[in-house]
Amino acid sequence: MTPDFSSLLALVPGDAEIVQPLIALGIALLLHLAATAAARVVAPRLREKAAILSEALAGRLRAMLRYGLSALFIGFATALWPVDTAPHLVLGIALGLSVALLAAHGLRALAIPVWAVAPLALLLFVTTLSGTNGGLTPVGTMLDAIGIGLGKRRVTLLGLITMAAICVALFAMVRLANRLIGGSIARADGFDPTQKLLAQKLAAIAVVIAAFFIGVDLLGIDLTAFAVFSGALGLAVGFGLQKTFGNLIAGIILLMDRSIKPGDVIVVGDSFGWVNKIGVRAVSVITRDGKEHLIPNENLMTQEVENWSYSDRNVRVRITLGVGFDSDLPLAQQLMLRAAQESHRVLDMPSPTVRLTGFGENRVEHEILVWISDPEEGVGNVRSDVLNRLWLLFRDNGITIPYPQRVIHAIREDASLAQ
Fold first, then answer.
1. Considering the domain boundaries, does residue 127 fall inside one?
2. Is 367 a domain residue?
3. Is residue 354 part of a domain?
4. Residue-level pLDDT at 30
5. Where are the alpha helices (DSSP H) in 188-226?
6. Range of the domain at 264
7. What is the pLDDT of residue 11?
8. By the 8 A CB rule, do 24 and 83 touch?
């Protein structure tokens, strides 16, 4: 039973039409301050025990707690205040503002655009205010009266607003569910990064499908009426999005067989770099130049791919060079080995080796073989480091690096023969 505050309000000195709304406004402000203080205490503890929720809300947890508690406290005060009075209207406005700001912070935390957040927040404010002052029936009747006829159906403003609100709410729920599920999978033990990524992709697809059917049910769409049309549309979409679905299936297969994983160093055609992420449509490969190549998943299934870190991250680098025929070959080979061993990225095991590969036109050909374990850092800089060290060692020890020479012999004809 709702208490009757009429006798208490009558005891307040001054003009009741001015003083009582001010009292209601003061009560709303005090309740909001109490909610702010409570949120300041509760938010840190909630972040510790529900870190995934805090991350999903992108740092807006305290603001949502503040306006959520404010709506709760002011809602109790509104329910206990006499209806059809000015103070009740003031509390209703405060309650509507709290609900609208709660929704706005929640939607913005999920990266919903401002152009979609503002109308929905305004709609919640009007709905809350109407619900606390006379009910929603008059507002609903007014919105439903505004509409146009399209064939056998009538499209009303109420239906459009309801449809837009449901779409935005479902979109926000999909994003929140994906963030919560993705964060839970990322924190799960016993899965490698590839398995976690696959689980996140499959969960995201399942969430979207579930949201679609929930939206169809909430909007009251009769799918049987679109049976023929959906069949033709599905056939057209199947042909038009054949590549898209092919890339989607190829991406799932890549994640399942783990032939390519985030962090692998791969070569596809002219693209060389490390795999940043495997998306629904393409694989992101970042090169040493900082360029990000988006390679369709289907290409990785049909083309030849070099995976430098498929089963082992160790990669062998070949460095070719030559020395003069008059050089001390044992000393030169010893210096080559020393330069390789002193390079900071070259592994001790397997150890570097030096091979004599042949006798060239004007030099003795050699090959230095070194192993590295971080191919994503590049291989050209390893060659450069070893050759720079070797240049100094050769210069200090008198080892020459020949360069091509050509000798031109002039042919002179006998003067007598010329006559």
1. yes
2. yes
3. yes
4. 92
5. 193-219
6. 250-307
7. 47
8. no
Maximum alpha-carbon separation in the chain: 145
pTM above 0.85, yes or no: no
pLDDT category, 419, cuts 50, 70, 90?
low
Instruction: Clarify whether residues 124 and 57 are in a common domain.
Output: yes
324, 402 Cβ separation under 8 angstroms: yes
Which of 104, 135, 166 is the endpoint of a domain?
135
Identify whether the C-beta of residue 357 lies closer than 8 Å to the C-beta of residue 367. yes
pLDDT (mean) for 20-35: 87
pLDDT higher than 50, residue 44: yes
Tokens representing 286? 């970042």
Question: Cα 68 to the chain's mean position, in Å?
Answer: 28
Strand order in the sheet with 271-278: 292-296, 282-286, 271-278, 265-268, 306-307
Structure tokens at 112: 């919903």
User: What is the CATH number for 378?
Assistant: 3.30.70.100
Domain match, 80 and 120 both: yes
pLDDT tens, residue by residue, 284-321: 888 877 788 888 888 888 888 888 777 777 888 899 98
Which residues, 6 or more positions from 273, have their beta carbon under 8 angstroms from its beta carbon?
Answer: 265, 266, 285, 286, 287, 288, 293, 376
347 and 276 share one domain: no
Q: Are residues 352 and 303 in the same domain?
A: no
Are residues 320 and 276 both part of a single domain?
no
Evaluate whether residue 234 is within a structural domain: no
Count other C-beta atoms under 10 Å from residue 21's C-beta. 17
- Residue 237: Cβ within 10 Å count: 13
DSSP state of 281: S
Residues whose CB falls within 8 Å of the CB of residue 66, separated by 6 or more in sequence, listed in order: 35, 36, 39
Highest mean pLDDT out of 137-141, 212-216, 233-237: 212-216
CA atoms within 13 A on the CB side of 227: 2
Check if the beta carbon of residue 87 is closer than 8 Å to that of residue 30.
Answer: no
Supply 134's token pair.
Answer: 């006379």
Instruction: Name the domain boundary from 266, 281, 307.
Output: 307
Q: Are strands 306-307 and 153-156 parallel, antiparallel or unpaired?
A: unpaired
Prior bond to 330 cis, omega within 30? no
Distances (CA, A) of 263 to 255, 268, 276, 389: 13, 15, 6, 30
As a whole number of angstroms, the distance between CA 385 and CA 377 comes to 13
